[in-house]
Specification:
The structure is a homooctamer of 254-residue chains. By secondary structure, chain A is of the alpha/beta class. Helix content of chain A is 46%, strand content 16%. Chain A has 13 helices and nine strands. In chain A, the strands form two sheets. The first copy, chain A, has a five-stranded parallel beta sheet, sandwiched between helices. In chain A, strands 1-2-4-3 form a four-stranded mixed beta sheet, sandwiched between helices. In chain A, helix 11 links the parallel strand 8 and strand 9. The longest helix of chain A is centred in the first third of the chain and has 14 residues.
């Protein structure tokens, strides 16, 4: 910022810039000249992650156009989330090389990279109805370069099912605990594990489940330490967060 | 009802009652003559339980007056719930024979009867802050003639603490699971036990616990079968319900 | 647990196990060796109940597969809840021996057993729109071995309709009170009965009924003792809880 | 309005008013000239009710000043609502002729008039904690010229207590049903009575009573016809509404 | 139905009916069991109003069956509320004499009686979208024997539209104020009128209207005295309550 | 419409119109009764803006009828909001001169006027899904005589996108900030700008977005000064408010 | 602060200040680190308003320290909001020149400037309890250079009180409508005025007012155009927004 | 505690401890029953962190007793959270070696260890009122072995304050973003950073902030990826989670 303001001041001093014009230029300083313009490029350089397109609320045409524009600028893997089957069929007509994962509602352009994280991401669900959210989380983590272990339908009402996987729980680097209804899975897993747990409430349930509100509140109030929460049904967010945790040292190594 | 209406009709027939008067009398029938007048007495005969006075919102004077009135009519044990320490001290001046249990906020006039239920009532809490509600439940159950087993601070974040009591869980006739925060205790216990579980959400917690709302919703959405819920902090209600369950066969034996 | 830890220690002592390996083994102890592994088997032996499949959110193919897997392992009656008519028609193609109860949305494989409980389960509804939930509760209780008495449309706005059944209310071992709108049925019945009352709020109503929220809150705040509540529209949960209460002595008798 | 606009137009025609001035005057017409200025006076003439001062949020000085100003303009009875005891003591120093009713939190200047309504106003409460709201309602109705019958603590958990007053319920012209907790009283009374029922939810209760929310929702969803609801704890509003209903024919007779 | 019981009594008085036969007739009165609904005929003894069938949640077959059963017992007008057009077409095939009012969603069997109330019921709406609820209220009031005046789309954002009807507001015996969105109509009318005002919030609006919640809360908090509220969209309830108020003296005159 | 009343007045002044005829013309102004809607023409006297018809909840026939009635009375531009495509196609059959803007769901009869405001209205959105609401706001402002600058998809998660438009933010007279999900755009823009900011929460998002509730609360709690909020998805309201702000001096100039 | 930067620039232009010294002076501008608060002086460059300190949650010592730091940098008026009386007394010991306005809870250091806005800001309240919020709004607007007109206690339940001020409503440049309870004032004023209306819900009321929630929802759903809303009780925000609207042309004039 | 068990094992290996003695020592590990709290020592076997005592809801005596029991078993640092100043003074009488941090409400027994994590934990707050929560988070992280960088009062309404710390944001391993009111800080930081962001809503604010609900919803709906949320005001939880993320590789290294 110094240089630029200095130049403005020198121009005022030399009379080539009026006081009024200089005042206007300086008014804009706080936002223009803190090195911020380079942030986005910076981010790209450091993260090197796959590119993501949020598919909900976009037409197939928009998705194809954005994907094509991205492919001109990068060789990275591109993936499209929240894309229901009908929409995917339309996109596939234009991008036949896309692989589509129906349960996860994710389309992928390019290869899923080799795992590059510290350890394993463990994805657990309370019931079978939580699987679509879990697949969104698991596939997101895989695309972002993580080894993923899945155990579904291990809810707390049948505790032995969960305890059967205690080795995986103990060995995980980060755990994604996905559950609807009362969402107790997060607390039980949080109490057993000694790694970060990302809790994902789902809208599974009825009545006083209030579209995931009960599970959300339950998870936010977890009596176990080391549990944090993302939005209801936000499998992508959990997978992304898990990947960031699992790559924490990567950044430091650069 | 027959007899009474018949008498009315006979009076009309005999001319001792006008049609208008008869019409008025019959209008009142649905509520007056279905054997209902005897219900309260009936209830007393069959239940034989201790008498309860709800102490919240009553002055010490009112409590003393009600208790004295009851004692003139019954030799049963009388107990006063939701009576804070200050109020109890005032009541004790007039009723020195009352025993006061501060944690449970309960005062008792008379003896705690011998257990008369089918089996044991097990009272569990998630944390130490839930103990006042638990004591209200446990003491209520004891006064109503139940053997009570207590295990406190066995929340799901330290699952082995709960598992350490698996024998008592398996042997209980009815379990009262008391927890604040995320209320996951009810689901975990409900999944382990094969007896009715009464869940009591407590107002323990802060922030998104919303004064017990999170635990309440969590318990209502329990993925375990055989769990039902009472109001937030309602230890008395849980103890009373547990006693009714534990005495189910008593009634049939009469 | 002693034995296993002892063996680990002996192996360390004898030099056949390194300290590091021993440390890892001991870390897993709290969950592996508290007798918990036997819980599920235990539960099966003691409960001997019919098997249930929660049909909502499962495809007809999944239901058939689960049912067939169960039938290979048990001769018990199997029932599928929350199965709408269209789904049932698909399942019936593969499992023609299934009997389907449309109002209750329940399919049954096998016989409904003879009543084995202490007494009678009484199922009451406030209105006619509550009947599907009531049938789910009643049929669940019957499949689990209970004698069930039904009285529907006996809401409190016409009190004499309810009072007409006062004998059944007095004789019941457990009552299921089902109502939407303001849910006052639970309190009135709770005040009349001297047995446990399980209240089921329903999503019947409109406007400020808020999909069952009004009835739920009303029932949780019941001024009558001996009332506990299950989730909105949860007929199955009420029937299951009622059965557990009605079989309380059975377990003790073994 | 005609006359005034006509005068404006005539002034324009005659040249004594410019078009611009006329335009401005006409702009204000819709609100100024619909006879509305006389409404307030009108209201006074027709209602002839006592004057009311809402005491909450006003200082003793403000209350005294307003009361004195009113007394200069009217000989009617004046009453002050929502005035807690401490405030009343201050007001009494300046207005020693005021009679103060502590339970109802109402102060009265002048006489309570003779009943002038069609029939009787019946005030019922579910519990003893509802009495302050009930007294506010009852006293308000009395001050406004109604005969009031009170029956307190007749909640639905002890139905025979309510049925004991069936004569008064049948004979009432309007009923005020006051209850906290689950608020079922309104529905039960609404189903028995054939007169308008005004339901008043109270903030009595705890936990899921949510400061009167449960009772409010319950009353709004009453399955009985002829029930309408006022704000939580709004005894004054119920008493005022009841008086208006009880004086319906008075107005027509004039 | 007074007439009916009176006729029975007169027959007994005159000796043309034996006491036993009369007893049997009267005993059958309170309930007429159709398997799915206990129709409350006894209520009519007390109230003498037209009969109402709540059409929502009932099949056309059920409506026809209930209506036919009613017609065998009474010559009164019968009306069916909350009956959408498709359902009405089905009912009309069996009951061609029914007149159907599509906007109000009400079907009527029999004549609309002459007005018998004290004065006029005024029905106001804030907007045009509130009209279906208003017609349900207005038609209900007419069927129950009231003269009704309607003024629609007179919301407070165009105050002069409301003020234009100030005469009708001043002359009404009872006013029904119907509005969605912010529901301010009730307060403004409540401040102008000197008769009871029944406020009906509607689910008209979007976003923070929360399906009528905003209007409901607004109306409950009305700063005007003499306003009470019914459930969201409950036109029938408002019309029924208005009729009860408008007939207050009738009952006393008997 | 000023023009119209002014013309009447001028005709009176010039003697070409009698006072009586003028009176009649002006009296007819405030109301034009179409049976279903009292169109408020008088408002135009004061405001002089284009006419708006709220299209939601109106049939195509009603829209055409209201539009035609308006056109007989005024030469101003008329626009219809919240008119979905299907409805617009029906209206176009009768009003082929209407131009329809599908994204904004607005139909326009007449010309969009030249900008007459103080400066520019800047419309910003957080994402692409907010564009329909933004177009409703922008087009509304344009029809009401404002120069509008649009920048869409400049949400705070990519701050540089927003900062790229800092010149437009600094130069705007009023800013409309539209965002769903967490609605943070309003606070960030409010902190940067020194002009009024109108925040519009949208129902974009899922789960804990609660149909716009999260964004609404966020915007109401903005830590930036100079931010006010309209209803969820209320693009029209924001555009209208912005126009009023942008024309503040206009009124004073008259 | 424009002046200050301008002076620096002028000094550079005239040669009395070197570029380096000027650069240093300007660099120090944006932040003044007091350890506990980064005071944003740079904002003033853009806005040129009086300085505000949000007093809630700050100790008297912190307030004094921030105020003194500000005074070293500027000669502008400084005002402290949300400062209760006790805190103000402490601050006055250190800053005796501060004038304190108790009702508005605002302290002022320096002169209230001459009005510099386009027209008048009109502040209206529904009741007397809303006055503290109104005074906060009004005084804020005055300090920021606006002429303010106040009319308090003009709620819609007594419409003539509001209509009595129709001239001020018609002449205002911007209106602040403040009300608790049902908040209808905003809609009624919005329908009458043709200038922007800023609605402020207050936490005045009880029961279903839910601490201002009812008024907030009501105002957000206003059926009148040209109404926007700020947070509950946010008088400062309304006054600030009003000032920005009233100065819209000022900025353009520079 | 790894050390402790390891020492036992090494003693067995070296023959200085018999198997039986070792078994007894290890068996005593998991539980230490103090009557009111089952302290979970076994957890330490897996996690090796400092010991934490949740101070809220515990008496000074209980805290001292638990702390002393812990100190007998471990040499690790012990810290007590949510301990207000008064309580801390009592505890200090018994444990004078405790250092007490008033803003963070944390007491520490033992040394704060050297940072052992991957990188730095950055703690940011929106305002000064958020500092207590921030200090709880920061101190927790420090006690658990993390280097912590603090920047407070950098809310989004003054964006340049936040941008001034862009280097720290870019270099952090994990960021804790703490804000009340609208909670927009999390989204803005989430969009700038390429590391995991833990968002902590605070109960700072008033009105529609609803005790932190607005910030909570805002953060859950963050449009930035890599943001997860803990309970309102849960500084400890955020610090703990951050530490786990910052030590992710540590565990793998073993």
């Amino acid at each position: 910022m110094d240089t630029e303001v200095k130049q403005i001041l020198e121009a005022v001093q030399s009379g080539t810039l009026s006081v009024e014009e200089a005042l206007l230029k300086i008014k804009k300083e706080p936002f223009l000249d803190l090195g911020f313009a380079n942030i986005d490029f910076h981010r790209k350089v450091r993260q090197g992650v796959a590119e993501v397109i949020y598919g909900a609320g976009k037409t197939p045409e928009q998705i194809v156009a954005i994907a094509n524009a991205m492919r001109e600028k990068t060789a990275d893997t591109i993936f499209i989330t929240r894309m229901v089957s009908e929409k995917a069929q339309e996109v596939l007509k234009e991008l036949p090389q896309m692989s589509y994962h129906e349960t996860a509602r994710i389309g992928i352009l390019g290869e899923i990279p080799k795992p590059s994280g510290v350890g394993k991401v463990l994805v657990l669900t309370g019931g079978t109805s939580d699987i679509p959210v879990a697949e969104e989380a698991a596939l997101t983590a895989e695309i972002l370069g993580n080894e993923v272990v899945r155990h579904y339908d291990v809810g707390v009402a049948g505790l032995h099912r969960l305890l059967a996987h205690i080795d995986d729980i103990m060995e995980a680097t980060v755990i994604i605990a996905i559950a609807g209804m009362e969402g107790a899975l997060a607390s039980v897993v949080g109490g057993m594990a000694d790694c970060p747990v990302i809790a994902v409430p789902t809208s599974v349930g009825y009545g006083a489940a209030f579209e995931g509100m009960a599970a959300l509140l339950s998870m936010l109030n977890s009596c176990a330490s080391g549990v944090s929460v993302v939005n209801i049904d936000n499998g992508f967010g959990a997978g992304y967060m898990a990947s960031q945790i699992n790559h924490v040292t990567k950044k430091q190594g650069e």
